[in-house]
Amino acid sequence: MLLNTYEPWKFAFSAETDNLEKNSFGIIGVPFDSTTSYHSGARLGPIVVREASFGFEKYNTVFNKDLTSVFYDFGDVNIVPGNCEATCEIVESTVNELLNLSIKPIIIGGEHSASIGAIKAIRERYPKLTVIHLDAHRDLAFEFVGEKYSHATVMRRAHETGVDLVQIGIRSASADEEEYVNSTYNIKTFKNKAVHKHMDELEYFLININTPIYLSIDMDVVDPAFAPHVGNPTPGGLFMSEIETIIEALSHKNVVGLDVVETASDRLGDNTAVVAAKIIYDFLTLIE
Questions:
Q1: How many angstroms separate the Cα of 119 from the Cα of each of 94, 115, 153, 212?
Q2: Superfamily classification of domain 5-286
Q3: Which of 68, 84, 163, 71 lies closest to 122, judged by CA?
Q4: What is the pTM of this model?
Q5: Long-range contacts made by residues 235-238, C-beta under 8 angstroms, separation at least 24?
Q6: What is the pLDDT of residue 42?
Q7: Do 126 and 160 form a contact (C-beta atoms < 8 A)?
Q8: What are 136-161's pLDDT values in tens digits?
Q9: How far apart are CA 237 and CA 138, in angstroms?
Q10: Which of the 8 DSSP states describes residue 208?
Q11: Where are the domains of the chain?
């Protein structure tokens, strides 16, 4: 058990934490949504996503492969309600604990701000790091309603640490965010229509990344017809088959962390929770 965690549930097929296998993955939940600006409820995401994971078989028919990777579920971090910066610091500390155990993090959210702490911790270990960010929104605001730590500023804080940033599925942004992207040299964008029409170009780009990778997936990247219960649903999103292709393209790369965030539902068996659990299940099936 990590210092700042408790155990409300376990992700399906997770191993016991008695004897940890190095270079495996460890799940932590971040039940926090205090900066949510539209639809609240992401604080319950870790619970409903874990519950949804029990709907899958150990054999993954999409990829014709058994889920054989060893991974663990360390429970949820003890967040500070209403204090995003303090919660991000707790996430950073918890991810550092995992890294000290040679365990790579998988974060279930919770709002997207959880990524700030995780990326800060991982960036310290990997001076050359690429963040691959699947989202409907850029999340590159310098501040949002006066707050520098927010679900809308997460990738700005990440980019400030010096990471390369690849944004996939984008279809909503402010003029200031677009100006910021145009003023930098290390933010690459594949908007939603580019993914729909030119997946081969995206795959080629991803398989040629030579740095360690942190993969951040906001569930609003998925079209709301399939994942409606998110903080900020936006039409025109990706399909599950496209996300599967992206994960498959990354499966032979050095992925050192993952988050799947912004599942905002209080109902077991919710569509969005099932899709989020499937993304994590596919990742764990494919990753080597």
A1: 12, 6, 13, 12
A2: Ureohydrolase domain (3.40.800.10)
A3: 163
A4: 0.95
A5: 236/171, 236/192, 236/193, 237/136, 237/169, 237/171, 237/192, 238/134, 238/168, 238/169, 238/192, 238/195, 238/196
A6: 84
A7: no
A8: 999 999 887 767 887 889 999 999 99
A9: 14
A10: T
A11: 5-286
